[in-house]
Design a protein that fits this description.
heterodimer; A: alpha/beta; 6-stranded mixed β-sheet; 4-stranded antiparallel β-sheet; 9 helices; 35% helix; globular; B: mainly alpha; 10 helices; 79% helix; flat
Chain lengths: 254, 287
């Protein structure tokens, strides 16, 4: 469902993406437009292609067809410098993926210092500010394995934000957390959304998607079956598959 | 791009991208070839233009003598292979055993832990060559009843004693690298210490230390030649024997080639094993 917008106003645009592993097609005919300050929620059952789509967008996976444009330039071009593209896209993973041999502060300053050439003092100051904002002021010098899951995921978010990315990809970042900790991470994401951070997130948190998303995409068997504003998708879905999925995951309406 | 009949055909842009990738792959192959030829050719040139090259060629790379010593050296090589094949499994089992003993916590095991530590420290401090000497000539001198005086077996025993010390340290490093949460979940399932070591810790540890273990075994393959000092007629000793009669070193070159031929397939095989295990465990995690 692409509206006819001129390409250059979009921050990121995907057109006709396809990805397969051997015979198995995991993504097909994916069209997605992301403007600055958008919060796009990808919903759908496990294996519907949400994670793969995110991994394709920051070039962790090569697409088999289609074009991805980021900041007005095609990044699905094999000649593009992937590291340069990735340095402007932040990503947070389901399993945190913090580096266990580094302290939280070192985790957060690694990329700013090594990739972006920010001086140590400046990088540390910025990391400390963000960590404080995210309630991790007392965890700065700890190693990741000594912290709770919620704390680790918040640290992972800070690590992604420290490079000041123009786009943030969040891959089911609350899926490994218990309900109590889900809240503390989502509050922060909500905060980021309100401050205008552009995000694409794969999520199973429907309530969160309904409140925060500017657009919700329902993925089924590697296609975006339906997309639109959350109010429309959640209260008046067009497709049967969407209705079935929502009936399964939403708490029964009382 | 999906066509009207539902079948997918790559779009023009995708075809263009594939062409670019192909072109780049071709360029990489070309670059690699040129680099290889320049570096190896350069090295060969330096070597063959050395003033002593003709003399080295005549004494080390003489086809006549390589051919002449072929039978003796390869017959000796069979002994190297035998020594290696006998020692390797014994070392693996003993090495794992010593490592397990060192990582036990039971108070009753303390004396064995102490012995294991002393063993590893002392043996790793003694040059393997010296151990081979001590075993080969020292043990027969004891005149003990019922003990073999075959230098083949005594030398092999020396190699086992020496390499078990190294291999046990490799295993211990592997055991310690397994995350404590694995022990916790084995405990939680009600497994005994011994069961969790055997079924949970050791398999993971072994997989992780396969490359350094292999490294030790390649080293062992070559160190079988140390048994020449106690007159075991293996490849190196046979080559040396031949050289003593003919005053030409080409038989030694042949022995060197034999050892290389022996180790290279072994390395490739273990690389392949490690890769396969990794692929199986990380399936779906991405590149």
């Amino acid at each position: 469902m692409t509206t006819a917008e001129p390409v250059n106003t979009a921050l990121l645009q995907a057109a006709g993406l396809r990805k397969s592993y051997g015979e198995k097609v995991v993504l097909q005919d994916i069209d997605l437009t992301v403007h600055a300050h958008d919060v796009i929620c990808l919903i759908g059952s496990s294996g519907s292609g949400k994670s793969t789509l995110l991994r394709c967008l920051n070039l962790l996976e090569d697409v088999d067809d289609g074009v991805i444009t980021f900041e007005g330039r095609e990044i699905s071009d094999p000649l593009v410098d992937r590291r340069e593209v990735r340095s402007r896209i932040g990503m947070v993973f389901q399993a945190y993926n913090l580096f266990p041999h580094l302290t939280v502060l070192a985790n957060c300053t690694l990329a700013p210092r090594r990739v972006h050439g920010v001086p140590k003092a400046e990088a540390e100051q910025r990391a400390r500010e963000l960590l404080t904002q995210f309630g991790l002021a007392d965890q700065v010098d700890k190693h990741p394995d000594r912290m709770s899951g919620g704390q680790q995921q918040r640290a992972a978010l800070v690590r992604a934000l420290c490079t000041q990315p123009t786009l943030l990809l969040l891959d089911e970042i609350t899926a490994a957390l218990d309900p109590e900790l889900v809240g503390e991470v989502l509050t922060i994401v909500r905060d980021l959304a309100e401050r205008g951070t552009t995000m694409i997130l794969a999520t199973h948190e429907m309530g969160f998607a309904r409140d925060v998303a500017t657009k919700v995409c329902f993925l089924d068997q590697g296609r975006i079956l339906e997309d639109g504003p959350p109010a429309e998708i959640f209260s008046n879905p067009r497709e049967d598959r969407t209705r079935q999925f929502l009936a399964r995951v939403l708490p029964s309406s009382r | 791009m999906t066509t009207t009949d539902g079948a997918w055909r790559p779009s023009a842009r995708e075809l263009e991208r594939r062409a670019i990738r192909r072109r780049r792959a071709r360029r990489d192959v070309l670059l690699a070839t040129v680099a290889l030829v320049v570096v190896l050719g350069g090295l060969a040139l330096v070597l063959t233009s050395a003033p002593g090259w003709p003399r080295v060629k005549a004494t080390f790379f003489n086809w006549h003598y390589i051919h002449g010593s072929f039978h003796e050296v390869t017959t000796g090589l069979v002994k190297n292979i035998a020594i290696f094949m006998i020692c390797e499994p014994v070392i693996l089992v003993l090495g794992a055993g010593v490592a397990i003993v060192r990582s036990t916590a039971s108070p009753l095991m303390l004396p064995f832990r102490v012995l294991a530590v002393i063993y590893a420290d002392v043996v790793r401090g003694i040059p393997t060559l010296l151990l081979v000497y001590l075993f080969g000539f020292g043990i027969p001198a004891l005149n003990l009843q019922g003990l073999t005086t075959s230098t083949f077996w005594l030398g092999s025993a020396a190699l086992v004693v020496s390499y078990t010390a190294y291999v046990s340290e490799v295993f211990r490093a592997g055991i310690e690298s397994v995350h404590p949460s694995q022990v916790a979940s084995a405990d939680a399932l009600g497994l005994s210490r011994w069961q969790s070591m055997l079924h949970v810790i050791l398999p993971q540890a072994t997989r992780r230390v396969a490359p350094p273990l292999l490294n030790d075994f390649i080293s062992l393959q070559k160190d079988t030649a140390l048994l020449s000092v106690i007159t075991v007629f293996e490849a190196f000793f046979s080559a040396q024997d031949y050289e003593n009669y003919k005053f030409n070193y080409s038989s030694l070159t042949l022995a060197a080639i034999c050892f290389v031929v022996l180790t290279v397939p072994f390395t490739r095989f273990t690389d392949w094993l490690t890769r396969r295990a990794r692929r199986r465990e990380l399936a779906g995690v991405g590149p």
